[in-house]
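Cross-check.
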Amino acid sequence: MIIIKALLKNKPEFGAEYVEINDPVPKAKEIMIKTKAAAICGTDLHHYEWDETAINFTKNFQVKFPLILGHECSGEVVEIGSEVTNIKVGDKIALETHIPCGICYQCRIGNLHNCQNMGLYGTTYNGCFADYAIAPAKVAFVLPEGVSYEEGALFEPSGVAMRGIEEATIQPGDTVLIYGCGPIGQFAIQMANICGAAKVIAIDINPFRINMAKELDVITINAQEEDPVEAVKVLTRDKGGVDIAIELTGAASVYQNIFKMIRLEGRLVTIGHPSKEVAVNFTRDINQKGLAIKGIFGRRIWNTWQHLAELVVNEKIDLLKVVTNRYKLKQYEEAFKKAHEDSGKILFV
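Predicted model, tokenized:
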């Protein structure tokens, strides 16, 4: 019998507990992994604190307690269910968070990432903040040779950036705005550069994250120190704005000015989830501007993962550049506290 420790949330209230749990056994279509690396996501922070964002986010999903937190991870497969054929014991895998049903209309036409009956790993399904974790075999991605466990744990969040870049359809010579210099923003900066953007501009209000972004061949703007709209106008004087803007902050206030930074017939990709409604002037900011907008929720399964894997294996991007802190799972309180301070991506290893 394996003694397993996990970060368990027992009630819809602040906090979680590091506890011993019963030895899990994978069902017919499940796998069990020995967790090698896991990362703290903004969603984990909201779930841990059980704030308004967590409450709003989980209204659309059937969340049950107790719940093991965590969804960004990698590990070694140590056991498989009786009906699992696509994964074998010993495989090094990372997990997709979006759990598709495989039978609804969206799944049938290839949109498994936005399934009509979708489950969410670490939200509606026990997650990976544990020594050993159970997951549906259908959301396991076998990592290519040469990809480390720490890199594998970052495939899920960097896959969000990858999907945003895919949908941005960057053309060589484009000017791209990355609004938000958190970990996903830093992934997106690297990807925009290798896609041929002539100029990448990044905006944030956090000096620590701005300094991290400066190492990635990008023009940075601190929105607390200068007017971001005026700064972007100066940088895009001929075009009248950026060709593409990718919004990653989820701050509703950003939408008061982001439309002013995009050129006529430009494109907006939205990734961050505002916690409240956003007022938009459709006539001025979308119709008369000829603006194309694409919302992002998850990674295409498995297109985005394959594109990302090729970039990592061929060393076109460095996922570990965003990592600033590593902790043992039992240090979770310190880790979650650090996530509110100056930090990049935080890993449990």
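The two ends are 23 Å apart (CA to CA). The mean pLDDT is 96. Passed to J.P. for a second look.
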